[in-house]
Amino acid sequence: MHLLLLRKSPELDRGSLLQYAGEIGLDMKKFTESLDGMKHSKTIERDLQLAASLDLYSTPTLFFNGRKVIGDRPYAYFRKIVEEELAAAK
Question: Tens-of-pLDDT digits for all 90 residues of the chain?
Fold first, then answer.
């Protein structure tokens, strides 16, 4: 579901969420009860506050030893950062 939500963003209204849940075969009764009951609202609010405190407003955002990388990047880009960080750690 996580990957599907990232691909479909920003289409994340209730109807779309129910459609996506059905597409991947989730238990629709359980999913709908959880969604409508806002079962995870405290966790979501906590995560939103954490993201705001870290100035995170884009997906994906990754950190490598404190280096913030925003957006989808090719493998070579990440490899270069990891190699630089490993060299700096020696």
Answer: 989 998 898 899 999 999 999 999 999 999 999 999 998 999 999 999 999 998 888 888 999 999 999 988 999 999 999 999 999 998
Residues 6+ apart with CB under 8 A from 72: 60
* Bond preceding residue 10 cis, omega within 30 of 0: yes
Cα 73 off chain centre by: 15
Cβ pair 20, 4 in contact under 8 A: yes
Tokens, residue 90: 């020696």
CA-based Rg of the chain, rounded to a whole angstrom?
18
The answer to pTM > 0.90 is no
